[in-house]
């Protein structure tokens, strides 16, 4: 997980809970919940594009070579899915086969930044500044990763 210490975790928490219907209640529950996860509405500050794990990790590998720091990225512990945080509205316009979108009217499960608990974890934690992955850049990274996989080159 990419992170920036205690102040970065605090900023990430504030950024994430800012979308909750009741940020204080969300923060309180999140910090005390033994599972360390919260349900947060997508479509306000971000959408999430969810890729199958076999494409998600190679896409993240390509993406991290293209930008210094992508936006937040989630995965489940089975690594069956990888979710990239992108600008709001992206999910409604996305046409990629096999890619699911979480946008307005949907919710995501988000782990507490800096903790490894529950069934999801951050591959790239939120930076608290609102950094998101540009959807066009993500699409290019996906195409390159898919091409490498098709050629048998793997994810790295």
Describe the structure.
The chain is of the alpha+beta class. The chain has one domain (5-150). It is 37% helix and 22% strand. The protein contains 5 helices and 7 strands; from the N terminus they run H-H-E-E-H-E-E-H-E-E-E-H. It has a 5-stranded antiparallel sheet. Strands 1-6 form a two-stranded antiparallel ribbon. Strand 3 (73-76) and strand 4 form a beta hairpin. Helix 3 crosses helix 5. It is globular.
Blueprint of the fold:
Blueprint (H helix, E strand, L loop, with lengths): L4 H13 L5 H10 L4 E5 L5 E6 H14 L6 E4 L4 E6 L3 H4 L6 E3 L4 E5 L8 E5 L10 H16 L6
Antiparallel strand pairs: 1-6, 2-4, 2-5, 3-4, 3-7
Helix pairs in contact: 3-5
The gross shape turns out to be globular
In whole angstroms, how far apart are the ends?
A: 17 Å
Largest sheet at a glance? 5 strands, antiparallel
The strand order across the widest sheet is 5-2-4-3-7
Poorly predicted spans: none
> What's the alpha carbon Rg, rounded to whole Å?
15 Å
Give the helix/strand class: alpha+beta
How many domains? The number is: 1
Number of helices: 5
Number of DSSP-assigned strands: 7
Q: How much of the sequence is in beta strands? A: 15-25%
Distinctive features:
two-stranded antiparallel ribbon; 7 strands; alpha+beta; 5 helices; single chain; 37% helix; five-stranded antiparallel β-sheet; 156 residues
